[in-house]
């Protein structure tokens, strides 16, 4: 599965915090039904055996629906389950080492907060960058905010696609218009909602409008 600018439009990052007795696979299916274009499986507390089973189930769903599927941080498990790739942060394995492990054909996403980090990630073989947090967020305790000008400077400094993450909702995503980002990555804006397909569809419309308005500028 290739990583294209279009596939990064609405990037859904999972969080089992809002399952309420349901399965994560069911919630991911609803997000895809609502228009999510990319799935990242993020697990911080699940044991390896259950994480693997979950990754295989969601990976199969994404393949069936032709949606790129990556794992957060866990390079070895991503390889084991045949995920499309992996996303790493600045405190995880160095991007160049990850690229060496997964090979040239898998997707590599890297988190960046500065122009220097972004340039370094691109040189190391990243296919896309996740930049943020662009707004205050409760989903990641260690997230530092990245302002509008820094996001724009990062986009201008690299040739790979950039998406924004952190506190994004359908009501504030328009504030990112003009930065040059190609999409938005969200967690609670999708998975905390009772109507996941509906929330996803509304958010996708808002992100599309933000990207299109920037293209007209």
UniProtKB/TrEMBL annotation:
User: What cellular component terms from Gene Ontology apply here?
Assistant: cytoplasm
Question: What's a single GO BP term from this record?
Answer: thiamine diphosphate biosynthetic process
- Residues recorded as binding 4-amino-2-methyl-5-(diphosphooxymethyl)pyrimidine, renumbered to this chain, are 40-44, 72, 111, 140
Question: Which annotated residues bind 2-[(2R,5Z)-2-carboxy-4-methylthiazol-5(2H)-ylidene]ethyl phosphate?
Answer: 137-139, 167, 187-188
Residues annotated as transmembrane: none
Entry-linked SUPFAM superfamilies: Thiamin phosphate synthase
Q: How does the cofactor attach, per the note?
A: Binds 1 Mg(2+) ion per subunit.
Pfam families documented for this protein: TMP-TENI
Ordered alphabetically, the record's keywords are: Magnesium, Metal-binding, Thiamine biosynthesis, Transferase
Question: Might you give the EC number(s) for this enzyme?
Answer: 2.5.1.3
Q: Which family does it belong to?
A: Belongs to the thiamine-phosphate synthase family.
What is this protein identified as?
A: Thiamine-phosphate synthase
